[in-house]
Amino acid sequence: MKVVCDTNVLVAGMVADGLCRDIVKRRLPRTEIITSRALLDELARTLRNKFDTDPAQVPLLKAYRERATLVRPQARSRPVCRDRDDDKVLETAVAGQADIILTGDRDLLVLGEYKGIRILSPRQFVELMDRRG
Q1: What is the pLDDT of residue 61?
Q2: How high is the pLDDT of residue 133?
Q3: pLDDT, tens digit, 9 for 90 and up, residues 23-35
């Protein structure tokens, strides 16, 4: 299963105990992770700006980068998402032929699906993974 993980899920998994940490540590390693330079840059910026953390000092981020397949998405000329910044998540998923976008972002979740790619909340993702065994 190919998964694009939105920045909000990764950050939550890195900074707090709970569902997202379980996903990042136990469930994502059982998938093929798809990402792009834009998503990695956003993650690094978020860690730096919101948490005053040097991304190079986060072992989990290093492991994530090493495991992920990096794709080069093509920008859309017309926005798809209510929040145009979220289009980079959709573009990454399309470029990587992902099966799932994992996000806590309502602007993405409201879509439900995009070009055959399911858009799931962390809870929905865990339920799917649990059903698959």
Answers
A1: 79
A2: 73
A3: 998 999 999 999 9
Coil, helix or strand at residue 124: helix
Phi, psi dihedrals of residue 129, rounded to the nearest 5°:
-60, -40
Assign residue 80 the CATH number of its domain. 3.40.50.1010
Element (H or E) spanning 100, and its range?
Answer: strand 100-102
How would residue 3 be classed by pLDDT, with cut points 50, 70 and 90?
very high
For residue 20, the enclosing domain spans: 2-132
Name the β-bridge partners of 117: 114
The verdict on pTM exceeding 0.90 is yes
Counted domains in the chain: 1
> Do 21 and 13 touch, CB atoms closer than 8 A?
yes
Q: Which string of DSSP letters, residue by residue, matches 5-53? A: E-HHHHHHHHHSSSHHHHIIIIIGGGSEEEEEHHHHHHHHHHHHHHH--
Which of these, 63, 2, 73, 82, lies nearest to 39 by C-alpha position?
73
